[in-house]
Amino acid sequence: MPMVSQSCGVLPRVDLQRLLDALSAEGYRVVGPTVREGSVVWETISSVSELPIGWRDQQEPGRYRLEQTGSQELFGVVHGPQSLKPFVFAPREPLLQITRRQDGFTTSPTLPQPERVAVIGARACDLAGLVIQDRIFMNETYRDPYYATRREGLFVIAVNCTRALATCFCASMETGPRAQRGYDLAVTEVDEQLLVESGSEAGRDILSTILVPAASDELISAAASSIHACAQSQIRRLDHSRLPQALYEAHEHPRWDDVAGRCLACTNCTMVCPTCFCHTVEETPDLSHQHAAHARLWDSCFTQEHGYIHGKNIRPTIKDRYRMWLTHKLASWIDQFGTSGCVGCGRCITWCPVGIDVTEELSALLTPDVQPPLALQHKDGP
């Protein structure tokens, strides 16, 4: 069987360790999905045995459960609460060190140390989110050096989805279930085989290192069929054909009051979202008051404090904050960045404690509110 050094090959599932070893030999810290305390989270791994072998996730609005199937499937878990965002946009990071002087103060940036990190197990929706984050943090005019340092060392091994969750709607957002761009390698698990495709020069180099045989047409066809079936199985969809204008026109829709009555403003949806980038900054002085750290940390437009500007809260109610979040995510984001801020991963549905479904809310908001005739509204008897 011929060997390939370019785009597409096949790796027996039992030989995946060869890929992890090759990445380690190239100086990468390998990170993969692992089972921790009832969910799947990213952890540094050195062995395939640390992956969630045989595990599957069941996700519904406000519900997440893992179950062990007893199979040898490596990537049966679709995703946990974490996207790729924490690898590039750190939840908390120091930006500046401030030092007091007799005549004032000095500042020095505290850029992160460059590190090569290879993440295996990212999904198509995660990659779509990373592309959006790149657009925000790495634009030519306002390039964020902290984000850029982490991004430049990131090697992404995507896993194409062959199984959809009840909360997935990436097919309707045209972001999945196949990884489209932004990956170095993409893997599709078909029975006991892994179809491996390269998407970058770095990916091709790794693929040539482990000398995988060329994939057969049958395997490529089987992988494509499984991915297509995954897309067809998704029960949720988000109709964005009328966006952004239709959502702007729904600004006074009574549905905002309805969803505000259910929303807890807990910020879960923004914390698990692959694209939300709201943040705040804080100063932390030392005990001598001669030094202070200026740090950036994740924040959410759902917190009351986030809406304070010059002593006034511009979004004082949950209704204001939910409306701002959804309108930005699905409408004004398009005006700002040329794309929707939603990638269809469904995490906000799963991790909402009260199971608010963004696809359901948008559908209701784009449906004109029909009020009964005034005489019927005040009718007292039958």
How would you portray this structure in words?
- This protein has 382 residues and is an alpha+beta fold.
- It has two domains: 8-91 and 116-232, no CATH class; 245-280 and 299-365, no CATH class.
- Helix content is 31%, strand content 24%.
- It contains 14 helices and 15 strands.
- It has helices at residues 16-25, 85-88, 124-137, 145-152, 170-173, 201-209, 217-232, 245-249, 255-260, 268-272, 318-337, 347-350, 358-365, 374-377; strands at residues 8-12, 29-36, 39-44, 55-60, 63-68, 92-101, 104-109, 117-122, 154-159, 185-190, 193-198, 279-285, 291-298, 308-309, 312-313.
- The strands form four sheets. A seven-stranded mixed sheet has the order 1-11-10-9-8-2-3, sandwiched between helices. A four-stranded antiparallel sheet has the order 7-6-13-12, with no helix packed on it. It has a two-stranded antiparallel sheet with strand order 4-5.
- A hairpin with a 2-residue loop joins strand 6 and strand 7.
- The longest helix is centred in the C-terminal third of the chain and has 20 residues, at 318-337.
- The protein starts with 7 loop residues before the first strand and ends in a 5-residue tail after the last helix.
- The relative contact order is 0.16.
